[in-house]
Amino acid sequence: MSKVPVIEIFGPTMQGEGMVIGQKTMFVRTAGCDYACSWCDSSFTWDGSGKHLIVQMTAEDIWTELKRVGGNRFSFVTISGGNPALLSNLGALVAILKKNKIKIGVETQGSKWQDWLYDIDELTISPKPPSSGMTTDFSMLSTILEKLKIRNGDQHMSLKIVIFNQEDYEYAKDVHQRYPDIPLYLQVGNDDITTSDTGQLANHLLAKYEMLIDQVMMDEQLNDVKVLPQLHTLIWGNKRGV
Amino acid sequence: MSKVPVIEIFGPTMQGEGMVIGQKTMFVRTAGCDYACSWCDSSFTWDGSGKHLIVQMTAEDIWTELKRVGGNRFSFVTISGGNPALLSNLGALVAILKKNKIKIGVETQGSKWQDWLYDIDELTISPKPPSSGMTTDFSMLSTILEKLKIRNGDQHMSLKIVIFNQEDYEYAKDVHQRYPDIPLYLQVGNDDITTSDTGQLANHLLAKYEMLIDQVMMDEQLNDVKVLPQLHTLIWGNKRGV
Ligand code: SF4
Ligand code: SF4
């Protein structure tokens, strides 16, 4: 059976961001990314520093490990990365999860298409703003968003953009103007991914969150949007695997 | 034209809790409640202390005021209380908002039915747990939830329960067992609704939030749930009208 590189399986924990914020979920984190965002908070998945953690697993292996770690305490699995959409054979895992009536969430930046994305219940497409150092391929992004339009009403998708600065904010407005009918989530960027002082980080990020809210509330071009922090960072700071 | 008692109109601001957490929205807060929860954070809507703020308004008056305050900076209106479901003639406001393509959110405790509830895009039913001092009429709640099943796929509803103690937690489990197919939001109760030290309150509530998460993550009977704080309280503390 074909295998995928997995770097972490953990949970159940609370999804701290985006369209299913607060959801009780298991996490499967795959290795590898086609991007190298300057502020990536999961760079161990692709920069070599987490190489020793990568295990090649079949879909059955992953399902067995999910049950071993999460027991009967989950009904939702989030597949995250890196960029899980690099992996065509994740389709086998998606099929197993669906067969077991597990809901599936995925986050990917919208740079690659896989047919198994059709089957994701809660799909976050998170194009990266200028501060990441990456350039969005809007033609690919549009192709992906177009494909996803045919899905059924129980499946949801959204765009999510992390905001670090004014340029990112303008980028988010551009994206909203291009795709006004797709639910848009704006997220406060965590600009200190190394501190271990969680209390201070929470206060800092809440202050930044308030500033972003203030700006969006005044802006006629960003009306049908949601503005959110990363809840896991407010609680657990930069700790990994919680 | 028939009038409704309105106690506050403000925004746009960010919806701090529940199924549309983070949403940019205007708020219309109606006066009057059939409950008197021990920890009500909007008791000025029903306990007489906000009596001088109540204005009897037609639906047209409310729409005019929403446009005056919010300009072109909103596409979503939240109707809150008190219990807005006490007011049959809110239907006229709902109709005006729909005609103007404004999405509508409502929160009500599920003690009263009104036909205009059929037309709410994002409807939160928040039965009150034991710590409130109130008793849930489950037969009425079931009737309401049954009626709402016929709505279309673009309309959403959820149950939301605020948790202050272990008894509330057990109540939430009971509600989830009664209505397993309705999305359930668990919310950390704010047990200090008078302090003006926002920073300390935020830290206190984040610690309580973490404890609630820990409990839910271990619990096989609460799998398909979302656990959330009140974001507005983390940012603005107990301030009103933000
Ligand atoms: S796309 Fe995501 S995982 Fe890849 S580098 Fe950027 S932030 Fe990191
Ligand atoms: S139902 Fe809501 S508004 Fe009414 S008393 Fe309880 S908390 Fe307050």
From TrEMBL, chains A, B:
It is an enzyme of class 4 (lyase). Pathway: Purine metabolism; 7-cyano-7-deazaguanine biosynthesis. Signal peptide: none annotated. Residues 20-238 form the Radical SAM core domain. Substrate binds at residues 14-16, 29, 80. Binds 1 [4Fe-4S] cluster. The cluster is coordinated with 3 cysteines and an exchangeable S-adenosyl-L-methionine. Binds 1 S-adenosyl-L-methionine per subunit. Keywords: 4Fe-4S, Iron, Iron-sulfur, Lyase, Magnesium, Metal-binding, Queuosine biosynthesis, S-adenosyl-L-methionine. It catalyses: 6-carboxy-5,6,7,8-tetrahydropterin + H(+) = 7-carboxy-7-carbaguanine + NH4(+). Mg(2+) binds at residue 42. InterPro entries: 7-CO-7-deazaguanine_synth-like, Aldolase_TIM, Deazaguanine_synth, rSAM, rSAM_sf. It holds the Pfam family Radical_SAM. Its cofactor is [4Fe-4S] cluster; Mg(2+); S-adenosyl-L-methionine. Gene3D superfamilies: Aldolase class I. Its EC number is 4.3.99.3. [4Fe-4S] cluster binds at residues 33, 37, 40. S-adenosyl-L-methionine binds at residues 39-41, 82, 126-128. GO terms for molecular function: lyase activity. Belongs to the radical SAM superfamily. 7-carboxy-7-deazaguanine synthase family. Homodimer. Catalyzes the complex heterocyclic radical-mediated conversion of 6-carboxy-5,6,7,8-tetrahydropterin (CPH4) to 7-carboxy-7-deazaguanine (CDG), a step common to the biosynthetic pathways of all 7-deazapurine-containing compounds. This is 7-carboxy-7-deazaguanine synthase. It comes from Chryseomicrobium palamuruense.
